[in-house]
Structures are given as C-alpha cells and as structure tokens.
Amino acid sequence: MQREHARRGFSISHQKVVLEIDFSGSLWGYTEITVVPNNANLRTIHLHARQCTIHLVTVASHQADFVHCDPLAGVNISTPQDCHTYPELKRKIYSALAEGDEGELSIAIPKEVSLRQLGQSGHPTASGILSETATPEPQTPGPSFQTPTGPEFMPIVVHIEYSLRNPVDGIQFVLPTDAYPYRVPHAFTTPSSPDAARCWVPCIDNPWEKCTWEFEFVVPRYLEEPDPLQRSDDPDFGEPHGSIPTVVVCTGDLVEQVSHPNNSNKTIFLFSQTVLTSVQHVAFAAGPFHVYQIPSEPTMEEAAGAAQPVMHAFCLPGHESMLHTSTSFLRLAMNFYSTDFGSYPFGSYKIVAVDDLPTQRFDAATLSLVTVDLLHGDDAIEQIVETRQALSHSLASQWMGINILPKTWSDTWLVNGLSLYITSLFIRKLLGNNEYRYRLKRDMQRVVEWDNGSMPPICQPQHLDPPDSATLPFVNLKAPLVLHILDRRLGKSGTSLGLSRVLPKIFLSAISGELQNNALSTHSFLRTCRKVSGADLRTFAEQWIYGSGCPAFGFTATFNRKKMAVEITMRQDAPAYRAHEHSGVSKMLFKPVPFFEGQMTVRIHEADGTPYEHVLDIRSTFKRYEVPFNTKYKRIRRNTKRYLARQQAAQAAAEGDAEAVEAMGLIDMGFGLEIWENEKERENWKVADWTEEDEQVMSGATYEWIRMDADFEWIAAIAFEQPDFMWVSQLQRDRDVVAQLEAVHALAKQPTAIVSSTFTKTVLVTNYYYRIRCEAALALVQCAIRALDFLGLFHLFKLFLRYCYDPEDPAQDLFAHTYVPKPNDFSDLSEYFVRKSLVHGISRVRFENGKTPTVVRQFLVDQLRYNDNTANPYSDTFYICTLISCVACALVPTASPERGELLREEVRSEQTAEDVNWLKQAVEEVNRYKSMDRLIPSPHNVVTIAVLEFYLLLTTANLVPHDLRVFFPLTREGNYTQVRIAAFDGLFMSKQWYTPAIMRYILAVMANDPCRVVRRHVTRCVCQSLALLVTMGEMKNGPKDSESLLIEEDGSVPEKAKENKKSDVDLMIKVLRKDREIGKNEVLREFLMPIVLAPNVDHEVRWGIIKLADLVLRGVEEAPPKVTIHLPPTPVVEQPPPIKLPPKPAVRPVKTGGPPTRNPLAAAPAPPKLKIAPGGSQVRASPSATPIAPAPRVTSAVPPPPTTKAKPKPKPRQPIANGVKTPQVPKAQSGGMSLNDLRACRNALKKLRLHKNAVLFLQPVDPVRDHAPNYYEVIKNPMDLSTMGAQLEEGMYKDRFAFEADFRLMVANAKQYSPHGTYAHTEAINFEIFFEKLWNRINKTLEVAGKTSESRSTGPQIDTTKQPPSKSTVEVPTATPTAPAPQQRRVVKLKVGGTQAKAAGKAQEKPKAPVTTKTRKPVVPDEAPPPYVDDGSHDLLQEVIAIERERDEEKRHRKTKEVVQDISPSRASGSAPPGKRRKHNVDGDDDILALATPLSRKDKVNASHVPPGTSTPVSEPPVTPTLKIIPPATKSKKEKAPEPAENPAPATEAPRTSNKGKEKETYNNQVVPSKPRQAAAATPLNEKKCRDVLRVISRLPEYPIFGQPVDPVRDGCPTYFDEIAHPMDFGTMGQKLTEGKYVTMEEFVKDAELVFSNCRQFNPPTTYPVNCADAVDKVFKREWAKALEKKLSWVEKRSLQGLMTSLVKDEISFVFREPVDPILLGIPTYFQIIPKKDARDLRTIRQKLDSDKYDSIEAFEADMDLMIRNAITFNGTESEVGRIAVIVRDKYKDMLSNIKCGGGTKRRKEGDGKGTPQPTKKAKLS
C-alpha cells in the first residue's frame, strides 16, 4: 500500500491550499500540488476529487486538459421507480467505489511539459532524496522515498482551481435555522465518510501518501454586519461592537494572520505544516471561536531546558466558561507523554469544540475537533472522567495514529491499541492505580464475554481492507489488554524490561526517520520487543494476536498434609474453538485457539499471613500441580475471644497508639469502624457473626486464601472455588482492588447473613476504593431474599438512612419508614457514587413473583419528591437521572418468560389497585421533572432523556399505553440532538411507526434532516426496530408463534436449536416481507429508491436503507451477462417452386424444425380458403408482424404438412356437412361447450383451487385417510375439484351450467355429511360464498358479451372468440351455408399489414389479380423427420396460431389506447386509472372478465359511426395475419359478435388502427368497399419517453440480438432479406429518433413491433431468437404502457394546487375545508341524503390532486362541482351554506377559466414531453 506511488507513476512532495470561505455554504480557491514523477512515460495524472467543481487546471503553468467524473454521483439504475431493483444499485455502488479508487480527476500532461531527468548529483531537495536521520523540510518527499531504485525527475506543479457549494461530505457548515435560531455559524472538516478528504480538496486520498502542506484561508473579519452609525463615528469602523472576530484553526503552525490587501472586511490566515502528513490527517475549523491558551508548567520547562509545545483550546461563544475546566489537564497529559515516550512530533496542539460532529472526535495532525458535548462545567462529576479519557486519547493519537501509521490495514490493532495503552497509563497517573486496575478487570470481563467465537482475530494479515466497523470496537477493546499482558510477560523475561523500554525506541525511530514512512507493522513491533527483552513471542502472537478466543479456566485446590503441598487441579476450555470445531471454513477464517499456553502466577496467603507466589506452567488443557507449602502453623485470629482483642485494639488506637493503628490495618480493614465494635449498634445493624462450628472449620484451615492469576497476566474466565470465609479474608485483607472485586463477586453467589454483614461493612469502611464499595452495595441485592428475611434490603435501607433525616423513634421499623433525604451535598465524591449504587441496589429487590416490595416503591418516589439540591455545589442532574431509571426498573416485574408462559395466572398477575396508584404517583413525579427540565434545562437535557427512557421501558413492559405524544414532538428539529435520538428510540419501539403518516415523516428525516447524527441513528433504528418487534412477538406469524407448544426435551434440543437458527432468521425475514404494514408498505416502496438515489444522501444512510430493503423486499435477481455464440447456419437445400394456383394463394407452413416435403405438385394445404386484404401483400399463416405476449406457445407435434393437391380427400373420420369438412374439435369442447364457457370454467377452477377454503375439496374423499368410513353410504354421488377438472378437459360438460351444478353438488355433499358447526361444514359454506361471488361475476360478463355480440352481428356469423395463448382449442360452431356447395369450406381470413414489402404495393394497385406465393427455401435439419401423415392437425395448428396472433394484436392496440375499442380501455389493457397502474396480467387469468366489459360512453359514440361489416382503412402498421373460421351453422346468442378487421391504406395517410373482425365475409378474393371510419387522434412524439423505453430494454440480457441490423453473413442467415422485406432493429430506431424521422408515438411503436414480428416471421416458435423476442417484447409493452399513461401535466397540476391553496386561504371557504362530520356538526342524516362515496371537501380534493388521481382538469372540476352540489342539495339554495357555496363556485370557476385559457397551448406543447418534466417525489419534512 505504501508503494502505490510506483504504480501511479508519481508521488507528491508538497501541496498548497488557498481557500476563501463563505459561511453561507460555499468555498472556492485553488490548490497547487508538487508532483515528482518516477516514470518517463507519465502522461496522465490521476487525482481524487469528489463534489468539487473544477474550473481550470494547469501543469507547469501550461493549461491542461482534464476529465472530472464522480462515479458515485452518477449512480443510477434501470428502473429507479421499482424498489425491488436495489441489488442492482448495490452492485453499482460497489463498482463506483472501486472505480473511484483510481481517481476521479484525470489530468493530461500537456505536450509542452517535458519530464526532465536529474543526474545522480541532482539537488537532494528537488530529487526527493532524504537521509534516514534528516529532519523533513518543506518540498521534500520524506522518508518514504529513500534509496530510489530508478531515475529521478524534476518536480512539476499542478495548479487546480475549484469551488465547492453545499457539500454533502468532507465539510460541515453549521448555520442558524428556524429550529435553531441561536446557533453560531461555523465550518469545519468532518469525517462524514471514509473518503471525506477528497470531498473538499483535490488530492491523493491515501493515508500512506504524505507530504508537507501550506494553507491560506480568507474569511470575513466578522460574521456580523457592522453598524452603519458606528462606521461613521468610529475610525475603526470594521469592528462591530461586542462581536467576536472570525478565527481559523488548521493543521500545522500559524505563520501569520493579516488583513486582506484589497478588502478590509476580510482576514487571511496562513499555516504551514513542515512534518510529512497525509491528507486524511488534515483538518481545519473556521468561526468566531473563543481562544483559551493552556498554560505551561514552569518547573517542567526549567527541568527540560526546552520550550513546551504551544497548546490552545477553542470553543463557540456561550461555552467559554466550560473550556478551562474541560481542557486544563491537557498540559499534564502533554508532559506525561513527552517524558515517558519521547518528544511531541509536531510544533503545536489545538483542540476545537464544534457542533454537529458526527463522531465524538476527529483527530488530525496538531488539531483535534471534538463535539461540544464533551465540555463540562465546574459542577459536573460523571462527565469529568469521560472527558478526560476522550481528550487524553486524542492527544495520545498525535504520537501513535497520526505521526505513526499502521503499515497495512491489518496492523490497525497495533496503532489503536498503543494509543489506548499509553492513554490508560496517563489515566493511572491522573486517577490512581486502583482506577486503572479496576478498568482493566472490567474490560477483560467484557472481552471474555465478547470473544466467544463470534469475533475474528485482532490481526488478520490476509485481509487487505480496513477493519469492519462492526468489529472495530472489539479490536479497540482487546488490543490494549493484549499489550498489557504482553508488558507483564516481558517484565518477567530475562531483562525484566517491558513496554516502557520498547515504546520510546519506536517513537524515537519515527522522529529520526529510521521507521520507514513512519509505518509500524506487527512484525517489526514484535521484533523490537524481542530485541529489548530477549523473549520468544511467537507463541504469544499466535494465541493473542493472530488467533481468536479466550480461555476459560477451572481451578480447584486441596491441601495434602502428607506432602505438605497444595494440590491445584487446572482444567482449560476454549469456547471460541468449540463454537467452530465442526466447521473447517470458519476455523480458517476465525482461527480459534484450541488451548492457550503460558505461565500463570498463583499467590497463596499462608497461615502466618505471608503471601507466597508460585508459577504454574500451562501447556495442556488439564493438569494437576503440587505447590509446596511453607508454613506449619494454623490460621491465626481464629479464637472465640476475638471481640476482646478487637476492643482492646480499637481502644489503643483511639488513645493514639500508632502501632495499634498500624496493626489494625494489617489485620482487618474493618477494625476502624466504630459502630461495628458497639454491641448495641451491632444489634441495630443486625450484624451476623461466625458460629462456633464456623470457628472450628476456620481454625482448621491451613491457609488464608489463594489468588489465581495474581499478576493479571491472562484475559480469561477463571472459576475458582474456596470457602466463604476465605473470600471474606481476601476482601478484608488483600489490598489489590482486583482481588477485592473478585471476592465481592464470589461472595454474591453465596448469600448468607455473614455475607450481607460483610458487604455492609465494606460499604461503611471508607478505606476501600469507592468502586469496591459500590460493587458491595449492588451485591447486597443477592442477600435481599426471603430465606434471609430480606436482610440485604434492611442493610441497604440502613446504609441509605445516613443520607436521610433520622427517624424520631430509634427503634423505627425501616420497612415502614418514610425516607426524607437531607439536602444534597456531593462534596465527598466517593459517598456520591456509593449513594447512587445504594439506590440502584434498592430498586432491584424483588419478591418471588417478580414484583417490587411496596416499601421500595415508596422509597424511590420519596427520593424524587423530596430531592433538594439548593445548597449543593455540584449538579444533581445525573443523580436525578439515576432516580428516574431506578423508578422505571422497580415498576417492571422480572418474571421470566418461561414462567410467564406456563404459569401465566401466577406470575403474570394483573395490576392491583396499589400497583396502579403507585404507577400514577411515579408518572406524576417524572413528568414534574420533565417540565422542570423544559423550563430550566439540565446539561445536554439529560433529565429529559432519562424521562424518555422511563416511558420507553414502561411501554415496552405494557404498563402504560404507547402514547406517541410523549415521543413524537421531541423528535423534531429544535430539540437537543441526544433528546431527539432518545425520542426516536421510543418511537421505534412502537408498532405505530410504520403507519403511512409516520413512515413518511421518518423517511423525510432520513433524507432531509440537517443533523447527520440523527439521520444515521434513525436509519440504524429502522432495521434494529424490526428485529426487536419480531423478537417481541409484535409481528404476526413471527418465530415465536411456531413455538407456542410445550415440547419435552429429549436431549436433542441444542442440536435442533443450531439447525433451526438459520431457519428462524429466514422465517423472520419472510414475516417482514409478507407483513402488510412493512413489506407491503406503499409509502416505503414509493420513497425508498428516491432517497437512496438522491445526490445528497449520506453514505451511511444509503447503506442502512439498502440493508432495510434486504430485509423487507425481495430483490430482483440480476441475470449474469450471457455470451452469445453464433453457430454456422444449417445447410440449405434447393426446392423446386410450387405450382401456382391463381384462385388460392399458398399458405406458408409454420416451421417446426423439420424440412417441408418436396412434393412439387402441392403449394399449400387446400382446405383453408385465403382471403386477401386490400393491402395485397403476400399471405402467410406463419407467425409474423405482431409481438406475442410471453406465454406457453402452441407448437406442432408433427412435421409440417406436405404440399398436396388443391382438393385433398377428406378423412373418413371427419364429418361432412353440406359438402364442408368440419374441423377437428378439441376434446374439452367435444360435449358442445362453447369456447367462452370453457375459458370461464377453466378460470373459475383455477381460482377455486387456489382459495384458502379449498383444501378439503381438492381430491376425492378417502374413507380411511379422512376418517370417514361411512362416507359412500351417505353420499351416493361424490364430487371434488380434481374430478371436475378431469371432466372439464374430457369434454363431459355441455355448458358452464353443468360445471356449476357439479360444484353445488360437491358443496351439498359436504354439508350433508358434516353436521352444522363442524370444520368441514364451515369450510363448505365459506367456499360456497366465494364461488357465488366469482360465478355471478362470470355470468354477468358472459351475458354482456352475448348481448354485445347480438347487437353487432350482421351477415354471416364469424366466430372471433380468442384463445388463451396456453391452450390449443378452436371453437367450431355449426351454421347454415349461404354459398354454393363447392365453395362451402372453412375460410381462413388473414389480415395483412403493410410490412410485406413489394407484394403489398402490387396488391394495392391490382387487388383482383391472383397472388403468387413466394416460398422460402427449406432448411434441412441434422436428422430427417419421420414420414408425415396428414391427420388434420396441421390445419388446426394454423388456425390456433393465427388466433393467438389476433389476440395479441388486440392486446397491443388496447395498450396503446389509441384504438377506438369495443371494450373499456382500462380493462382491456389491464391497467387501472392514472396513479393506480396495475401489473399487466401476463397469465391471462382474468381474460374472461375483459372479454365483454360494457362499452364506455365514449366508445359507444365512436362505435355508432361504424356500420357493421365495414373496416377502417389504415396505413402501414404491422398487423398479424389472423385466422377466421366461417361457422357452417347458426351462432349461439352468448357468443361474441365479430369485430371489423383493418385494411391497409396508402402510406401517405396518418397512421390509424381499427377494430378487428368487422369486415363482411365473401367467398372470393374480392373486397367489399367500406366507408372510411373516423380514426383516433395520433399522439405527438415524446422523444424523451421513447428514449427511456429504449434505455430500459437495452439493459436486458436478450437485447443484443435486436440492437443492430441483421448481417446475413455474420449471423448465419443468408435468406434473411429474401423473407424480411422491411428489416428493423432498435439501433436503427435510436438513430431515427436522433434524426427526427418519427412524428408520432404510433410510428415509433410500429417500428418496435416490426422488430418482433420480423423475428417471429423468420424464426420458428420456441427457438432462442423468438424466446428473446418474447422477453424483450414483454418489457417493451410494460414500459410503453407507462409511457402512454395519462395524467395531469406538471404545469396543470401546479396551477390547480395553487388554485386550491388560494381557495383554502380565502375565509369564505371555511365551510368546505374539512370533511363533514355528522356527529360533530349535529346532522346525523347527512350520509343518508349525500352518499358517503359522493362526499367531497377541499382537503379530500387536494389529497386526490396531490396523489395524481385526476387525469384532466375536467375531472378535477367535476369533483368541485359535486362538492357544491352536495352543499346545495343538503342545505338548500337560500340557506347561508347554499349562498356561500354559490360564491365559492363562482370563485373557482373564474380561476379555472384562467387556467384553461392560459394553459391550452401550454398543455398541447407539454404533450411532446419537451417541457419541464415533473420532479421526482421526495419525502418532505413536515
């Protein structure tokens, strides 16, 4: 990573940045980068630059060409409105990030600039040579360029002028807003993203690319405008009175501050950083800061003989009083680090407190930006420790983390760990050794809990990426602990030198230049440790650095009197290794350590009180050690007269005997406790003492106590058991705070009266460290049990009584006392922390049923009620927070979930009246503090935060209802950031947050909230909340629902739990995706992608939303790119031309893979008679000219029929009716069922099978399986859905009514056999109800179809019933012939568009001339087909395919909405009104419903102009040849009437479409003239929409074969242009769009359909090209329907919204502003007069307008008229409301007339799509 400059071709030696800052949100200036080439072939310089606008680039003073492209800014997806395409977005973001690594700014070196090479004697500064010990100077590359291996070149200067406006990342501008009017404007660099540095300056954004820096900042002198009166009077008019001048603080040392030479109102700040620094460690802040210079210590200065680094602290106005108390200790930290670890690597240090920093700190070279939350006043207590820890760590990072970097990303643990390690050493000096060791012990316990197999090693050399943000906190926690135990082990090595000798060497090598590029690696660090100490650290590194996990030890100790030794048994376990034991992959990834080796120190305190240390050498998982024992005496102080000894010692100490005092301290820390020595007091405190039996056991013990790992050398869980009296001795006599903590935790597991007394004494003795006293107070909770008569609670009350007024009666029962606290006095900080711990302990006491005792409840309420802080010098805000949290804790019962499930009536008892009363008191007190905090805010509003957490806990426990009014107002801007975060936490724990209104608000916050911290927190909480709600059982069908049964454990539960863990997660995700309010949430689906694709989205918010989409949405899987291989074409065999039959043109057979037979006498099958349309184009029955919806395709099972003579003999099996051969009837219609009825029954059967109540009826009843042995004795005629389906397909139903009868029989059987109220009877009733609704709908549809057919049919009846694409049935009704017998055949009528080239033109000139059929040359397959037998199936195939084409043709015309249709346009196209577009029904399930939808009013008018039997002339649109079979018998009434077919018109006419099947049938080749029909208006071309459609389909994997013209040679189809007269492809269409050759949308779609029809014409069905055509056609139709969707234009919508706004603001409209509420207004009969569906008001109309429910101004006006009409209807014209209604009507009519007059031309222009597009919907922050 450090050698990237070699690959890049250059390095940077110096960079200068000059910026002028405008605090309104912009900055501009330039940067000069000194580039040192290392390659003579360098031609392009790649730099990182995001967000910036580059204006000019010069290289060596020559203007250079450059390309600036931000991949992240241009991320887009194919269908941004589809939320399911988020995987595509994720992939593109990854690609953009990878692309950005190379650099967003590419600069071409001009030809005038030559790269001049230096000789070996070149100037060292210019060449970049630097000795290892030289101090880096400006313009020098630094140590990273030592010993160059190649030639050296002269540096060149790249000058870049750029600007930045409203940046998203890198720079944060904090400005006053309406919500925060008192904010002080300031700006600073922010670590908002990993690549934040490149977002504000062009650079090489690499932590290992270092250079020297110069900075020049131009800022306003003051941010306030000077008073003009003062300007005239005061000579120094530029300084407003009382204003603070603008200050710039930057990385480096301040060189000078000067006034601007041309503008006296501006100031220039110059900084210089002479130490090599990465751009990622450069920062600045500008604003009216207060400055505090941290004073130096004269004594240190005199001792060291050198000046100390200059240190300053800066803060915004209003915080200056807290600056001194928060930062004055930093001088002590600077001196400590400089003395112990080497001199400060830079010249100065600054710390700046700013607002809205996304992290707690941002550490840069010489500068640390910290959040203002770290500042505290003189009265703070808790925050002092946190602030000192954070600020001392920021200073330590200057040595380790900024000056010294990790060599690779895997070395991050070392740099972070060392900075935290030296910080902990300073904390030890600042706060004491006890605090240091206590923190170490606590951190080790956290690591042991964490490192159980779920965490990787802290160092992974194989990982080349930065550490994951999820594991980085663990690394930062474990790394300093590993260094601590390393220091302990090095100290025990041969030289006894630990890290105190290693670290100064490392820091010295960094300053001297010996450490290459100041990059420290794990290997070099361990090598240095080995050199210093001589210890072999390979085993240590493998276990603790490169391995994961922590050991768990179990020790037991017994005394062997014969051997005079203590036998210690050790067992070691590795939980992390056990977790990965059976997975080889996870063992490779996590590298868990199977067992740990090393030495452990055991300290045995023997009978004489002397501690003896022994070392156990651990080399295996189990071993027994014999530790020699030195003392032969028994335990001392074990006699029955110890009270006398105690009294004598206490008396001597009281008289001033110093030796007695010292002896007391050595014997027992409790001897100095006066009240403990008074017998009466002991009784008052209920002090328990050892019994005589205990004394005997204790006197027989040979040692006092044993401590394992006494030197704190292991990060391990150590379980060691010894008697309680030994733990008491360890607690009272061992001075190590860790030993005392271990004793407290061990005794808490053995609750006895002795233990309770011991803990009480520990709390009272002030010699103990305060944290041990706090732990003892909390441990008393374990003794507050009924078995001890709640002795622990008594001791807690007795201890807390010291802070309260004493009871009047000395013998007062503490369980009935009212605890009124004395006024607070927190001067003794130890007592303050003990007092808080006592309150915590009291709140945790519970009865067996999990409830808190009444006395505890009253105690906590009294503490809140009577708290008095008037005379306290310290703030009590955190103490109040403790009280509030304890009240919440005491309110919630702690019954376990298991008991709650099995013993619900016992544990989950209802709230009693006492519980409700106490809850009410607690809520009143908490609300009082909330109100006080609003009036007199606490620091950072911590009391309000505690109140919100109080309500959150109670609502989660279902103690109070979840009231959004508690949380929601505090989530808005204007509240303190942490308050908003706590309020959002409460909001997300409610199931109400994903209601549409709140979901809109949350999405608006994620997208637009000015606070980055809030945006990120809300985004994280969305995902976490869903997981919590599912876990809590708030979601339906959650994982807990499946575990409601009580399962008896059989030993396999753990294994099953492991197996089901993944399935539980999958089930949870399925629950979320199916949830109507989450996975199906319309608001979430609508705004998810716009937020993610917004240019100003925060990167963490973007990833959080993508994670949310992963949870609740099923992503669309992207197909991998396909490689298309063009195989050579199959051989072509010549065939003699067929015999021409003038009266009957040949029909081209469908290609099915086999070659046509070579019979030269037959040109086409004879039975179908061909009818030539006026276009006269060549007629073929093959698929052509029309796109086919993706559905199962009908293919022939036999080879194509051979060409036979004109009149073949009919087969004997085929019936002959009046000389006409009847076509073969499909089996399903053999019973006489019509095609409409068949389709209806199939559709109904499909829906019935999928219904939820259909389970019992899917298959026949099995008496054995279904436990119905006498079923067939009761039910004589059984029926089920599978039987009905079989009978339907076998043609056993003559009509749909027979099908209905069978269904009713099935339901009647179920009702007859199953008694009323049984499951089967209920299911049958529900199933029958569903069938009634479905069947009524089908009947009405078919009846309307029949009536429409009857009213339109004239002349011979033609069956135009369409077939579903997946079925191959043809309806064959019988009819009486009307022509001579020789002509009475089935007539195949083909509609041919103008796409068949030259034949069409000839036919138009001579329509009566016979047509010569051009036969395509056959293609010979690899294998010969079987002999062909003519069984009539081919004729049926031809007819079915043609019918399919006709159906698809109708679907296409419906979608375009330009055809005057005979059915409702919205139903025909499968789309809903604008704004409610539905997915196109590909499967055709509801085709029967669209078959005969009643005509709309407009369609009826248009249809009336077309006489039956006429056709509409059209020009060239491609039309599929459609097969029409003339029925030889009369037509049924319920069949659909024929529709007029379309006839091609000359190409000069406007393109039109027409209804099909309407021409009058004739039995020759003549065409009956028809009257011209009024054509639908053409849609002007909208080029943008057309290009959008092309762009969408171009992303499909099947698109490439249609993207360019067909090349017969390249594509292996030499006969292509013989068969396709009008080739077309999408590339040509795009070119025609560019050249402006399209005028209307119909012309464009005609060419698109030509592409698909050509493909289907040339290629047989089911082949790869046709499948591709189907896929692309499907997407094209979907996108085309969207493009043609009709709705209000943007200008019209905005105009109507303005009208509504004006109308609402008008006072006269108050009557209509809100919906009518009959109850509120006292008019209960309103909805009886005005139907509720017709009720209108201004708010409802505005909502419909905003959600695009109106497709025209007229529709909007109709709703307004309806509103006025309702008012007049209900109130009367002469009423007051009626008069107001008339006035309102006149007003909006006038405004509407203006809109119509001024918008008519504008609307027409908007139709072409070249106007202002409608902006994307965005979530708006309400």
Quick overview of this protein structure:
With 1822 residues, this protein is an alpha+beta fold. It folds into 8 domains: 1-69 and 104-176 and 191-227 and 251-277, tricorn interacting facor f3 domain (Immunoglobulin-like, Sandwich); 289-402, Neutral Protease, domain 2 (Orthogonal Bundle); 404-545, Neutral Protease, domain 2; 751-961; 999-1043 and 1053-1112, no CATH class; 1145-1234 and 1361-1422 and 1430-1686, no CATH class; 1235-1352, Bromodomain-like (Histone Acetyltransferase, Chain A, Up-down Bundle), CATH 1.20.920.10; 1690-1806, Up-down Bundle (Histone Acetyltransferase, Chain A).
Q: How far do the termini sit from each other?
A: 48 Å
Number of strands: 37
Spatial order of strands in the largest sheet = 5-4-10-2-1-13-16-15
> Number of helical runs?
61
Largest β sheet strand count, sense and barrel closure: 8 strands, mixed
Radius of gyration: 45 Å
Q: Low-confidence segments, ≥5 residues, pLDDT <50?
A: 120-148, 228-238, 300-304, 636-643, 897-909, 1038-1055, 1139-1222, 1354-1434, 1456-1575, 1799-1822
Content-based structural category: alpha+beta
Q: What percent strand? A: 5-15%
Give the proportion of residues in helices: 40-55%
Number of domains: 8
- Describe the oligomeric state of these chains in a short phrase: single chain
Bulk shape: globular
Roughly what is the average pLDDT, rounded to an integer? 77
